[in-house]
Design brief:
CATH superfamily: Formyl transferase, N-terminal domain
Strand order of the largest sheet: 3-2-1-4-5-6-7
Radius of gyration: 17 Å
Low-confidence stretches: 2-7
Distance between the termini: 17 Å
Oligomer: single chain
Bound molecules: glycinamide ribonucleotide
Structural class: alpha/beta
Strand content: 15-25%
Largest sheet: 7 strands, mixed
Mean pLDDT: 94
Helix content: 25-40%
Number of helices: 6
Length: 222
């Protein structure tokens, strides 16, 4: 993935959530656009279930929503085609996974290479991969005895919780922490970190080279 980004205007963002997603990261990104922190607008929220709280919240923020359920498609490719049609129809520049606990079809990842971000509630590459999402991550961190956790915002590639890391924010883990207390501490950092990563992207300040993310001020070669 070698990608340079030169946005001339507000970027158009799609947010993807799955299942009964609560949508707090989605809301942070919507707010980040409204306050002008992010040079962009959330043009679409794609969910897998119409009764998800995230879909309700998106509607309350007057954001267009689309329900695309993998269960209504015979295979990954057909599911991916439906996602791409929705993204293309809204001329989306950046896709933000926010509580999207599924494998994103490869055809989508390939077409939008360098244009898909994810937030993960741990410091990748630790506590990531298949089955490591949401509360499972915090349970594993607390059980491990690690004294530091945090969140990671990264570009998405074809592997679970993989791809060039944009930024990571650590938080302490205390001996008395439960998965719930740790999750709350991490979630607060997810919101600010995700907004910051998308802000940098929206200003054309992120460049991917040789699997690493470089910060650049003027789009010139580093
Ligand atoms: C967040 O903690 C996010 O990091 C996690 O799901 C939660 C969604 O919360 N995502 C993953 O674990 C992906 N591997 P939200 O719906 O309130 O944003």
């Amino acid at each position: 993935m070698n990608t340079e980004i030169h946005p001339m205007h507000k970027i158009r963002i799609a947010i993807m959530v799955s299942g009964h997603g609560r949508g707090s990261n989605m809301q942070a990104l919507i707010n980040g656009c409204h306050t002008g922190m992010i040079n962009g607008e959330v043009a679409l929220v794609i969910g897998t279930r119409s009764d998800a709280p995230a879909i309700q919240r998106a509607k309350e923020s007057s954001v267009d929503t689309r329900i695309i359920s993998p269960n209504r498609h015979p295979d990954d490719n057909s599911y991916g085609q439906a996602i791409m049609e929705a993204l293309d129809s809204k001329k989306i520049d950046l896709v933000c996974l926010a509580g999207f606990m599924r494998y994103l079809p490869s055809c989508v990842v390939r077409k939008y290479a360098g244009k898909i971000m994810n937030v993960h509630p741990a410091l990748l590459p630790f506590f990531g991969g298949k089955g490591m999402y949401g509360e499972h991550v915090h349970q594993a961190v607390v059980a491990s005895g690690m004294r530091v956790s945090g969140c990671t915002v990264h570009f998405v590639d074809e592997d679970y919780d993989n791809g060039p890391i944009i930024l990571q924010t650590p938080v302490p883990v205390y001996p008395e922490d439960t998965p719930e207390t740790l999750a709350a501490r991490v979630l607060e950092k997810e919101h600010s970190s995700y907004v910051e990563a998308v802000r940098l992207y929206s200003l054309g300040m992120l460049k991917i080279k040789n699997g690493k993310v470089f910060l650049c001020n003027d789009n010139s070669e580093e």
